[in-house]
Each structure stands twice: as structure tokens, then as C-alpha cells.
Amino acid sequence: MNKPILKNEPVATSAADFFARSRARLGFDVPPGLYDPNIIPASGDPGTDKMLEIIAREQPVRPAAVLIAVVDRPEPTVLLTQRSANLNDHAGQIAFPGGKIDAMDASPLDAALREAEEEVGLSRGFVEPIGYLDLYGTGFGFRILPTVAKVRPGFELTINHSEVDDAFEVPLSFLMNPANHQLHSKEFRGMERFYYAMPFAERYIWGATAGMLRVLYERIYSS
């Protein structure tokens, strides 16, 4: 299955409007489902919800944090990475800077900022955290808590090639246009589950990354 979702209209995505909406809708309360396997993050797709229930019974919860870094340019952009082709998990895929939450991390926010520094050299001095997005579950047992942040232009990146092959920016207007939100499906143990894809030029944004971007759209613009 491969079709765009057209039930919502494209939105105006000025930086000022996006950040104002984000501050009004997001906060820093950590959802208990980040660590509790008995709380299943809702996806809105029955097949995916059932998959997450099965995964929670079979695998330990793996708390993770990512940074949705929105760069405050005249046309705002989102910073994404292409994971190293040599990694064991999700090699070569498009992702947000981020990773698992370590015991030394003071919070999911701290984990997201640490990972962004380690992966692409994004200095915390350029980052203004705004709040957490909804908890996102994956078929690999990860419970991902995204931090939405405003990033001041002028930063210089240093790519850690053991983790990331490349870092690049995509216009927020493209990612927040529902006409670009393709819905795909695949089978999981006899059940059909759906996931998003947002192809951009030669970059294929899909899976959890596209799913969290869709959640961002729904949380910031659909209400």
C-alpha cells in the first residue's frame, strides 16, 4: 500500500508560528510508559498497537530519546541524520540524532542533547529545548521520547562517522505538509500494520522517523 494522506490541509510553517504553537502544546512531563512495559504507547493503528503489545511481552523495554532539532532559519528546517551503513541496527536509515537513555543521563532531554553532541557535534549552546512530544513505540522494543527544540543558526557540525554517515536539513514546510505523508503497510504475524514514509529528493524518510514527524504534525497543527 502506498498512498498519500490528504485528510488535512497544508499548514503555514513560519518559524514564529511553529515555535509558539510548540511552546503552548508541549511540556517536560515524562510519560510513565517510557519505562513501564504494561503501558503501551498508542499509535492510532490497531495493527501497530497489537504489535507493540506483543513486543512488550517478548522483549525488555528499551527507553530512548531523540532530538527533533528545528533550525530557526527564515524557512525553518529539521536536522536529520543518515545512520552509518556499518551499524547493526537500522543501518543507513534516516533518523533524528538520538539513542538509548543511559543511567548517567539526568533526563530524556539530557540523553537527547548528549546523543546530538556525540553523533553530529551539535553544541548545546545552540539548542533551546521546548518540550517532549508523545511517546513513540517501535517493533524493536524501543520506547522513544522525542524532544522538540529550537536551534539557533550558526552551529558547525562534526560528524561521528562510526555512528552517522551524513547530516542534512529538510524544510519544515515539506515535513508538515500532509500531502507528503505516504501511508505504507506490511504484515506482522498475520496482521497488517501501517507506517509512514516521506521521501524527500534522494532521502527516504520512513518508519519511526516519519512516524514521529507525523505525530509532530498532528500535535502542533491538527488541534
UniProtKB/TrEMBL annotation:
Cofactor section: Mn(2+); Mg(2+)
Statement: the UniProt record of this protein carries the keyword Magnesium: yes
Family annotation (InterPro entries): CoAse (IPR045121), NUDIX_hydrolase-like_dom_sf (IPR015797), NUDIX_hydrolase_dom (IPR000086)
Matching Gene3D superfamilies: Nucleoside Triphosphate Pyrophosphohydrolase (3.90.79.10)
Alphabetized UniProt keyword annotations: Hydrolase, Magnesium, Manganese, Metal-binding
GO MF, any single term: metal ion binding
Residue ranges annotated for the Nudix hydrolase domain, each copy included: 61-196
Keyword Translocase: no
PANTHER family cross-referenced by the UniProt entry: MITOCHONDRIAL COENZYME A DIPHOSPHATASE NUDT8, NUDIX HYDROLASE
Name of the protein in question: Coenzyme A pyrophosphatase
